[in-house]
Design goal:
The chain is an alpha/beta fold. Helix content is 60%, strand content 11%.
Length: 388
């Protein structure tokens, strides 16, 4: 009987807080629906940029051999069992253009087909001795998608060569790592995401700290002093942002102590962390606007935390869901999440040695999103808790 009484009491207590109960029950099912919505096909198309310098040559029967075009066609024919493309091929005209796409992770591999590619294969086909054509692969070796994309591109290259010459390797393949990506250890690859994760945790701290003052009645007493929303939240946010900067400094110091090396400016990385801190505080204020208790704030904060962790590249790489293009740059669906830009910027600084100008887009996006999230957080909190 005592067990039954406690069981029924617990059910009644849960039913008195329908928000907490519904969020607890809906969190995981919602994540399943979100993944299905964003990734309906369940397959990733690996992006390969091709700089085709190949000059077609005339064969004995008068037909033109354009082996570079055939390599690209072979890559485009690679598909999953359901027919979805395995590789998306885009042809570029300049190497610098393609390397910029590699740095922004808009493509995973740059394949450079030399001008003598067709001539070299024709010579091999005719049994002549000729210098092998040098085919070049360039990529960021710290990008997890590079290995798969490189294997797919190399398979298409070998398939084309075998079909034309029936020889195993009449060409020379050269791999060039982007920046210092070849020198990065597995541990160093994870450090940028861990630094951003240390700042994401501010969502919990910001929402619970403010919700605690709402629950205890402290906020009502502060209102008597004619304290404005911007004064109260500005002061609280400054302290939280300072906490975020200290957190990322401590995390980075530990990473350095155990062997991490940065190719770029440490202070530039700290600027990225500070801007990200402001956006996370803004998210925390938005959570606090919908919370009357610390328990509610803790539970609701899991939603933005999960989105920032699973869809921004902090924990593991996420395929870009392209939405539109601005100035030749693809804007993805997850670019509305500030940590997406923070991870991209830190990867460029730590691995590629990028300077201020090379991460200007990421810094601008972080600054704009931070202001938007913070302004929304202040306005929502003011409407919910600071009305006269």
């Amino acid at each position: 009987m005592k067990f039954t009484g406690v069981f029924l009491k617990n059910l009644r207590e849960q039913s008195r807080d329908p928000l907490v109960l519904s969020l607890s029950l809906s969190f995981a099912p919602l994540m399943v629906l979100v993944y299905q919505l964003f990734f309906p096909s369940g397959s990733t198309a690996y992006k390969v940029a091709v700089l085709n310098l190949d000059t077609p040559v005339q064969m004995a029967d008068g037909a033109l051999l354009s082996a570079g075009e055939e390599v690209m066609a072979t890559m485009q024919d690679l598909t999953y069992a359901n027919g979805d493309p395995l590789v998306q091929v885009s042809e570029v005209e300049q190497r610098d253009q393609a390397e910029a796409q590699l740095r922004n992770r808009e493509v995973q591999v740059l394949l450079i087909i030399p001008g003598d590619f067709s001539a070299s294969l024709l010579a091999a086909q005719q049994g002549e001795q000729a210098q092998p054509a040098q085919v070049t692969f360039i990529g960021d070796l710290t990008n997890p998608y590079y290995a798969v994309a490189g294997v797919m591109a190399n398979a298409a290259l070998e398939q084309t060569v075998r079909a034309l010459t029936d020889l195993p390797q009449p060409v020379q393949v050269v791999e060039i790592p982007l920046g210092a990506s070849a020198a990065r250890s597995e541990f160093e690859i994870y450090v940028p995401g861990l630094l951003v994760f240390s700042v994401i945790m501010l969502v919990f701290q910001a929402s619970m700290m403010v919700a605690r003052e709402v629950e205890s009645g402290t906020l009502r007493r502060l209102q008597i002093t004619r304290l404005t929303a911007w004064e109260y939240l500005g002061g609280a946010s400054a302290g939280l942002c300072l906490t975020g900067v200290v957190s990322i400094l401590l995390t980075f110091a530990v990473a350095l102590a155990v062997g991490f090396h940065s190719q770029g400016s440490i202070w530039l990385a700290m600027l990225v962390g500070a801007l990200t801190s402001l956006s996370m505080v803004g998210m925390g204020l938005m959570v606090a606007a919908f919370s009357r208790t610390v328990t509610q704030a803790f539970l609701i904060a899991n939603f933005p935390l999960a989105f920032c962790m699973f869809f921004s590249g902090v924990m593991f790489p996420v395929a870009q869901v392209a939405s539109f293009t601005v100035g030749g740059r693809t804007i993805g669906l997850f670019d509305i999440l500030p940590p997406t830009h923070a991870v991209a910027a830190l990867n460029k600084v730590f691995t590629l040695g990028a300077g201020f100008g090379e991460i200007l887009f990421e810094l601008g996006a972080l600054a704009a999103l931070s202001l938007v999230y913070y302004a929304l957080g202040v306005l929502l909190f003011q409407r919910a808790h600071l009305r006269a």
